[in-house]
Design a protein that fits this description.
The chain is α/β, with parallel strands linked by helices. Helix content is 22%, strand content 23%. The strands form two sheets. It has a nine-stranded mixed sheet with strand order 1-4-5-6-7-8-9-10-11.
Length: 256
Amino acid sequence: MFFIGELRNLRELRMDFRFKATLSLIRPLSRIMDSVQWDFSSVTALSFPITADIGFIVTAFPNLQAFSFEAPLNRRLSSIDGLSDLASILGPQLAYIQICKMRWDVIDFQEVQAIFPQISRLTMGGTMAFGGSPVRPRWDLQLATGHLTPMANLKVLALSDERGLASSPLDAILPVHYQASTMAKKLLPAVGFHDARSRRYDQAWRVWQNLPNLEVLYIMDRSFQGHCFAPVKDNQGQLIDVKFSDGVQKFPWPVV
C-alpha cells in the first residue's frame, strides 16, 4: 500500500479493504490516505468498496472524474456518510458513476438522480427488485428509469435487468471494482434470437421513452455481461427504433 503514494502517474485505482469476514482495513488506511504526505492528485478514476465514512475521498482525490462503489444492502444511498458531500464538492467534474447494489428499488433510482444529477455516464449493477410483490418483484426498467428523466446530461447508461427475489438467498454479486472497466469485453454478440435478447430489446425501447437524449444503453446481468443498444432516429432527430450494437465506442467507465 505504501508504495502507491510514489506512483506519480497513477490514473485509475481499485481498492478492496476486506481482510477477513469480520474485519476491514478501510478505517486505518483511510487515515493514512488522508495525510498530507500522500498525493493522489493524479488519480481520476477510483473504485472503492463502501462500508464506512468516505469523507476523506474529497480531499485525498481532488481530481476525481469517475467513482465506482458498492452500496450496502438495505441501506439508502443518502445514508452513506460522506457520499452527498462528495457529490456536491466534486459534482461539476464527476462524469462517471458506477454503483453495484443488491435489490435496487424505485427509491434508489430517485436518490441516484438527486445525488448525482449532473453526471453523463451511469452504471447501476447488481439486481433489481421494484414493482409487484416482495416475493416476486417485477423488473420493468421503464418504471424505474422514469425517475432518471431529470438527468439532462445523461448520455451512457448501463443497467442490470437481473431480478432479485426477496425469498432467494443473497448470492454474492461480483465486486464492482473487479468489473469497472471490463464491461465492453463482456458484451454478448447481437446475433440470433433468444428470450433474453428479445426481452432486453423491449426494455431498451421503453427506457428511451424516458431518456430520449440517451446515446448508448447497456442492459446486463449481475456479472456485467449483456447487450449494448443505440437509438435509431429520423431526419428530424425523433426516435423511431433501437438497435443492437457491437461497435459502440462510448463506454460507461473511462478507458484509462
